[in-house]
Design brief:
Length: 422
């Protein structure tokens, strides 16, 4: 079975369709960048809510998002994705607007939870949505493009948020926070205009006319994700490799400021290296990951690169001057390589190891690995930085390498759960 010619969009229509979705991600990510930059100052100074209450609300929101991503992912299978994706964007916009009137910790907690639920639910549905839009064969490359655009937009949003904070004015931070739901609404409107020409295509179909029984992508046995221990093993190992997220946001800043004599502006340099690197290199890097086996190899590269970054970070404290700065920059480059490889691998694994009728369920579960890393990682890295002994860092590096090695085993075990369709 192949896709009929009238189902495949013409080149100019396909380009317009894909550009609209890129624009949707740009404005939404712009709003996210603004929120990440100004929300703490806005909530604590404009709303007079204590940092403790804000932290509790954010933690609860993260936990709700973790559960919601799995639940909404499973619920989305078989639903109309053209309606569901924009609807989640609208919910996120309304909840973000609710920040402006959250005069109590309870109300703020409700809004934070709603933003998190809609955001993580959207993340679970995004993979199947893009597969229905561009086809399986171009999914990984297109997701890399989307991520590059989103990173660039978040950097712009963070810069605009920095300008607002620079005014040190409640009015400026209120305006910046008010722009967040506008970005989410515009993103939802643009997403609603996107068509999904491959929505009813058989698994493995694409422009090239691959069929469901193709040896490249055999039909996956439809098994509930919680009864698929091989896939859950992939998720667990991915969660370890996804520690690159809190490593960038917590480990690098804390280590540079607390354990080195390097100038504090080097933290911004590290973030800039990561942002520019993702924007420029993520798309070409993703072209090398086309099969689960490629993804397993990429995960091995991730483990080695992150371990190298960890060890260079630790060794930098025993250096001084230019050598110390050089070690930190090289560590940031190794971290970037690990992140690029892991991202490309995750898109391939989350889709190729999932049954065609349970994509949302499997995507939501796979994304929970990132949620766990974001929830647990900051605490782990904070403890490692503040503990004088360095043995914990060596253990972490070993675990990352082991996770990369074991991913090959996990992927091989997950793949035999497939069966050719009749």
């Amino acid at each position: 079975m192949t896709i009929s010619d009238d189902c495949v969009p013409r080149p100019h229509k396909r380009l317009s369709n894909e550009l609209r979705y890129l624009a949707s991600n740009f404005v939404s990510s712009l709003g996210t960048g603004l929120m990440l930059t100004v929300q703490v100052v806005f909530v604590t100074q404009n709303l007079n809510i204590t940092p403790v209450h804000l932290g509790f609300a954010l933690t609860c929101g993260a936990m709700l998002g973790l559960v919601a991503g799995i639940a909404l992912g499973a619920w989305s299978d078989g639903r109309n994705l053209r309606r569901l994706m924009p609807a989640l964007g609208v919910v996120q916009a309304v909840a973000a607007a609710g920040y402006l009137v959250s005069t109590s910790p309870v109300l703020l907690g409700v809004m934070v939870g709603a933003v998190s639920i809609a955001g993580r639910g959207g993340a679970a549905v995004r993979g199947p949505f893009m597969a229905a839009m561009v086809g399986r064969e171009r999914l990984v490359t297109y997701r890399a493009t989307v991520r590059s655009v989103a990173n660039a937009a978040m950097a712009v949003g963070a810069a605009l948020g920095g300008v607002a904070l620079g005014y040190a004015s409640p009015t400026a931070t209120t305006i910046a926070m008010g722009a967040v739901p506008v970005g989410y609404l515009l993103g939802a409107a643009l997403t609603a205009s996107v068509s999904l020409p491959y929505a009813n295509a058989p698994r493995g179909s694409a422009e090239g006319g691959k069929t469901e029984s193709s040896p490249r992508t055999p039909a996956i046995a439809s098994v509930p994700v919680m009864k698929n221990p091989c896939f859950l093993m992939v998720v667990g190992l991915s969660a370890i490799l996804m520690t690159h997220v809190p490593m960038l946001s917590v480990a690098f800043p804390l280590w540079i400021s607390e354990r080195t004599s390097a100038p504090s502006y080097l933290i911004s340099v590290v973030v800039l290296i990561n942002t520019i690197g993702v924007v420029l290199v993520q798309v070409p890097m993703s072209t090398f990951v086309k099969t689960p086996r490629d993804a397993a190899h990429a995960c091995l590269g991730t483990g080695l690169a992150l371990a190298a970054a960890v060890l260079l970070l630790v060794c930098s404290s025993s250096l001084a001057g230019p050598l110390q700065v050089t070690a930190l920059i090289v560590a940031a480059l190794f971290h970037l390589i690990g992140e690029l490889l892991q991202s490309a691998a995750s898109w391939e694994l989350a889709f190729d190891l999932a049954p065609g009728d349970r994509l949302g369920e499997y995507q939501g579960t796979f994304n929970s690995g990132l949620d766990l890393s974001v929830m647990i990682g900051p605490t782990v890295f904070s403890i490692l930085v503040t503990t004088p002994a360095l043995i914990g860092w060596w253990v972490l590096a070993g675990i990352q390498v082991l996770a990369g090695v074991m991913m090959g085993v996990a992927v091989r075990r997950a793949a035999p759960r497939t069966k050719a369709s009749g």
